[in-house]
Structures are given as structure tokens and as C-alpha cells.
Design goal:
Chain lengths: 170, 170
């Protein structure tokens, strides 16, 4: 019976790109990510959640994604340039992040795996800034200085063996 | 050279559970998901993005996740019960959703895959409500009535063969 979680990874080579107040109508996400792709900027994690705001009468949402830290200045520049024409709000870059992920097969079938990862981080007072999940991966973004501590505490919490850790340095 | 996208799936058996204005300090996500797990409620996709608000002097974030539609009434009930003690904002359920996902190996290495999926949806005027990604999967939540149209347009956009579609009915 394979344990639901088989490894934990940390990636400190990324930055968070946040785009606020995107008009919530079809085509906006497409436009933003097409622009990044045209500039050869690979996007790793993308999260978009509930409507945050009704600004000036129309609904908008925020999107956050992670990109290579080296691409952050260009991403910020190209999006800031179109922000006013496209009706976007603030474009923000945060390079002070570490992306910590647990991987395993079929975690969906195990209620409590996400809670256990979050609880491990909470025990070390590590604040969770961003979350994205799939059946085989749960990703949390934390402050970069907390990355190694996060890796260790999750490693312990899930009893991972020597080969259970993967590090991508900054 | 395997195409980055090998299939598209639709799941109409889920509901979105949204929890607003969660005090942004360690332990809150853990507490919420531990409660759901205690009630045997499996959570599929979880997204948490930027800080939305500073409410009454402290920062808060929203979390959205998807759960089985059958679990929605109980999830809403148990979270509404603790909302005031835990300082949570509104607990909202939306059953009118379809979760559409594209799967493939190494999509991260292909800038533009996400943009292409979003553009396909935009062509049919389908609004994207929620987004979560990993290297092998990009998930969009759309209105349930748009689900089948979304499946078809993505299928076409990525030139998927007959075996490229998976449906999980409501
Ligand atoms: C906000 C953005 O995702 C928009 N809803 C779209 O479909 O493009
Ligand atoms: C909002 C919630 O994710 C909080 N930051 C936590 O770490 O639990």
C-alpha cells in the first residue's frame, strides 16, 4: 500500500508575479499568458481564485503565477506597459519566495494529506502565501527564508526516507 | 516528440467551496482542511492567491477548493458553524461548475500551453472562474452549462484524438 506522499521538493529559483484586478471577462487570462509566452517566459504555477472586487462597477479577479526569477524584471516590464490599456490593476513581483511541494500518487483519495502538510508548516509558524494542488502534487509558496525549514518539517511529518528530498537552489 | 497535451477531461461531479477573509497567519489553512478531513470530505483542487483585503487592521486571504457535490451541504454547514470563532468571512458553495483539465507531460517547458487553453475558452466566450496548474495538468473551472462546449473547443484546439477525452458526469 504505497504511502500517499513519496517526496518533498523545494524550488528557490522562482518569483511570484501577481496581477490584480483583471476584468473578469473571457479572453483576459488568454491575453496575459499569450504575452508572457511571446516573450518566451515560462510559467510554472498559476492560481486564480474567487472574485475579489467589484471595481468601478465591474467584477475583477486576481491571478498569481510563478516564473523563473531571471524572467521577473521582463515580465513586470511588459505587463506594466499594457496594464492601463488592458484595464489591469497592479503588477507585482516578489522574488522572496520558496516553492515547496509534496508529490505522491492519488493524494486526492486521502482526505487529510493537505491538512497534514499545512499543519506541519503551521507548527514552525511558517505562513502559507499561495496554494495550488493536483491529485499528485500539493504546492505551497512560503517566504524564501522559511524554505529550508519548511522542507525539513514536511520531510519529518511524512516520514520521508533519504531519497525523499529534492532541492532546486536559487 | 510527444505533444505537450495528450488529453482533456471534464468533471461535473464537483462543487466550489469558497472561504473568504481567512486571517492570514500560520495555522488557518491547516485548521480548515483538518476540519474537512475529520468529516471525511475529500478536497480535490485548492487555490489560494494574493492577499485580498486588510479587514479591521489585519491581512486576510481567500481560499477556494473543489469538493464532491454530494459533500457540499455538509462542508458549508461545518464551516459556517466555526466561521465566527475562527474569524472567517463568508462560506460560499457553488454547485454550478464544471472542472475542465488538460493533461500532458512537461507542459511547463512549453510556454504558451496555458495561453492556448485559455484562448480556446475565450473563443467560445467561456469565462474562466478558477485556475490551478502543475507541470502535468492545467485545470480551469467554468460554469457547468459551458462544460461540454469547453471540452469540445479544447479538444479541437489541441488536435486530440478520439481517446483524448474523459468525462466524469454529474
Ligand atoms: C479573470 C480571467 O480569468 C477571465 N475570467 C478570463 O476568462 O479570461
Ligand atoms: C491564509 C492561510 O493560508 C494562512 N496564511 C496559513 O498559513 O494558514
Amino acid at each position: 500500500n504505497a504511502p500517499p506522499v513519496r517526496g518533498v521538493a523545494i524550488d528557490r529559483s522562482q518569483a511570484r508575479l501577481g496581477i490584480r484586478h483583471i476584468p473578469d471577462r473571457p479572453g483576459m487570462a488568454a491575453q496575459i499568458f499569450a504575452l508572457l509566452a511571446q516573450h518566451r517566459i515560462s510559467v510554472d504555477t498559476i492560481v486564480q481564485s474567487q472574485r475579489c472586487q467589484v471595481i468601478g462597477g465591474f467584477a475583477s479577479r486576481d491571478i498569481a503565477c510563478t516564473i523563473a526569477r531571471a524572467d521577473a524584471p521582463e515580465a513586470e516590464k511588459i505587463l506594466t506597459k499594457v496594464a492601463s490599456d488592458w484595464g489591469l490593476g497592479e503588477i507585482a513581483i516578489d522574488t522572496d519566495i520558496a516553492k515547496v511541494s509534496i508529490v505522491g500518487a492519488g493524494m486526492i483519495g486521502h482526505p487529510g494529506v493537505a491538512a497534514k502538510m499545512f499543519a506541519a508548516l503551521a507548527r514552525e509558524q511558517i505562513n502559507i502565501q499561495m496554494i495550488a494542488t493536483s491529485e499528485i502534487k500539493i504546492t505551497c509558496v512560503v517566504a524564501e527564508s522559511e524554505g529550508v525549514k519548511a522542507l525539513k518539517i514536511i520531510h519529518e511529518a511524512f516520514d520521508l526516507g533519504g531519497e525523499g528530498r529534492i532541492e532546486i537552489p536559487a
